[in-house]
Amino acid sequence: MLDETKPLYIAVAEQIEDGILNGTHPEDGPVPSTNELAAFLRINPATAGKGLNLLADAGVLVKRRGVGMFVAVGATAMLRQRRRDDFARDYLAPLLREAAHLGIDHREITEMMEALQ
Amino acid sequence: MSAIETRNLTKHFRDVAAIDDVSLDFAAGRVHGLLGRNGAGKTTLMKLLTGQIFATSGEMRVLGENPVENAEVLSKTCFIQESQKYPDGFRPLDVLRIAEGLYPAWDQGLARELVADFRLPEKRAIKKLSRGQLSAVGIIIGLASRAPLTFFDEPYLGLDAVARRLFFDRLLADFSEHPRTVILSTHHIDEVSNLLEHVVLLDEGRVAISAEAEELQSAAIEVSGRLDEVTAFIAGADVLRVQEIGALATATVHAEPGSADRARAAGLQVAPVSLQNYIVHRTTAAAAAPVT
After folding, report:
1. Which fold has domain B2-214?
2. Which of A41, A45, A97 sits opposite B176 (nearest CB)?
3. Whose CB among A77, B45, B118, B210 lies 3.0–4.6 Å from B136's, allowing a Cys bridge?
4. Quick check: A44 and B31 CB within 8 A?
């Protein structure tokens, strides 16, 4: 469920981000509490809290005292832009590396992508 | 704040140093893992900290005080022992009733729920219980006592997979609602690694590791690929283990900032090293046989 190649709290933060991007957690709506998240992901509440705080520090979540954390207005656009920035590094670079290993040139890659659509 | 502090704590049994110059801090309100091979000194350390045996030398503070013959500290401490002995003829019912009187923060509602969850036959004589049912008695006491400081010494013994998960989930839920200091000693490291915040590894009575679980989970990486590429990459790295299979190799190395990215750039596959595997590597580096 969580990406094990990353520190756990970062994987927690990314999972919440995924939920915001796919509409599971709409803007201005609440996200799960630290304890809910800990129980659901079966991790220590301190780790879950650290993941949530990471997003609060980045402005993706806002704390409402006594109520919990909410998705910031504008968070979806902010996350989408950041994910776009990371796309080349995280997806295209490994793709091109593997293609080079297999002797697949750029024209073939384009053809494969068209065939998939 | 520390729930437990030890300074140069040492315990000799005749000429064997079971605990050898151990200086540790266990912060309050966290879940700590106390790990190590059989005979590493885990149980001895817990017995010292709960005043069951006396130190040969050194200092310790448990909840701010010396625990030896200290009723105040001991009423706030719950030690679930692997080999707990009960008086003849006792049933779980009797044990739980006594525990209820012993621990000021005892939650009888939680105890009832756990008895049902673990399907513990309360009226059967303790000596007729299976090993797993015996472990369940300890787990129920450890959780329902809500003691500010709780030690679990190999609580998983004899438990089936369903009961192990039950323990994990119940501990997590109760810890979330009622934060306290938990020291968890177990060989099932993979099962509890996401619950641990701090890890102590004992090896032959000494502290081999005392670190944040998060640091240890990213302390090492496993790289694999062509033998020549792996060999080039690990030159100068702190290598824990290398395995060669023909023209291929897999190596476990201590990770430095950026080393995973460099390995990928060098065309190697990079995989994380679980806490359990890291502990095994760190233990076998000192001894010959694998852990657990």
Report:
1. Rossmann fold (3.40.50)
2. A45
3. B118
4. yes
Residue type, A115: A
Q: In chain B, positions 182-221, which contact chain A (CB-CB < 8 Å)?
A: 194-197, 214, 217-218
Q: In which residue are the tokens 């005043």 written? A: B51
Name every chain A residue with its beta carbon within 8 A of the beta carbon of B169: 39, 42
Q: Could you give the ipTM of this predicted complex?
A: 0.82
Which tens digits make up the pLDDT trace of B143-154? 999 999 999 999
Domain A8-75 CATH (choose: 1.10.10.10, 1.10.260.40, 2.40.50.140, 3.50.50.60): 1.10.10.10
Q: Does B161 touch chain A (CB under 8 A)?
A: no
pLDDT at position A103 is 94
Write down the residue that tokens 């299976």 correspond to.
B130
Q: Two tokens at A81? A: 């832009």
Q: Say how many C-beta atoms besides its own lie within 10 A of residue B288's C-beta.
A: 5
| Interchain pair B176, A42: CB under 8 A | no
Instruction: Find the residue in B nearest to A47 (Cα).
Output: B197
Distance CA B242, CA B240 (A): 7
Neighbours of B258 (CB within 10 A): 9
Note if the pTM is more than 0.90: no
